[in-house]
Design a protein that fits this description.
It is a single chain. By secondary structure, the chain is mainly α. It folds into 2 domains: 1-56; 59-113, no CATH class. It contains 9 helices and no strands. It has helices spanning 2-6, 8-11, 14-21, 28-40, 45-52, 58-67, 75-81, 87-99, 103-112. The longest helix has 13 residues, at 28-40. The termini are far apart. One of its GO terms (molecular function) is clathrin light chain binding.
């Protein structure tokens, strides 16, 4: 995984990267992979997050995306993991819905979670 990120023009292939990163034991590589996608493939970030979501620390992820002001970019990921009823996920998604003035979406989110 590190080699693919260090040499993206020669070694990185999306399908292969996502397959390999889910098999690593070191969860820290997930966050390096997320940063790699932010730097090189931001439009594919949600695909990576969905693949990694079963083993991710979602609170840490929300804090990371909040810190770097990327919450809007990962809204599909937030929606997909909202069923976990994680406080950080719910607050981040609800904040986005308020910013977007999507009050119907906010009502649905609050009622469900």
């Amino acid at each position: 995984v590190l080699t693919m990120m260090q040499h993206p023009t020669e070694a990185w292939r999306e399908g292969h990267f996502k397959d390999v990163i889910t098999k690593v034991a070191n969860i820290e590589l997930y966050y390096k992979g997320i940063q790699f996608y932010l730097d090189y493939k931001p439009m594919m970030l949600n695909d990576l997050l969905l693949v990694l979501s079963p083993r991710m620390d979602h609170t840490r992820s929300v804090n990371f995306f909040t810190k770097y002001n990327h919450l809007e970019m990962v809204k599909p990921y937030l929606r997909s993991v909202q069923n976990l009823n994680n406080k950080a996920i719910n607050e981040a998604l609800n904040s986005l819905l308020i910013d977007e003035e999507d009050y119907q979406g906010l009502r649905t989110s609050i009622d469900a979670f």
